[in-house]
Amino acid sequence: MGTVDKARNKADELSGKAKEKVGKATDDKDKQREGKADQVKSNLKDAGEKVKDAFRD
Fold it and tell me: Where are the alpha helices (DSSP H) in the chain?
């Protein structure tokens, strides 16, 4: 996996966690769901990169 892609995925995951926490603190269910969705999206991208790496080898 490229270092840049890995860093972007981690940044997206951390951003999602922050949104989720802000949503919990402000009782904003939409923000919580958005944060969880961002985390899932980041995890899927990370998994896709790992699959690509497996086929490159």
Answer: 3-26, 29-56
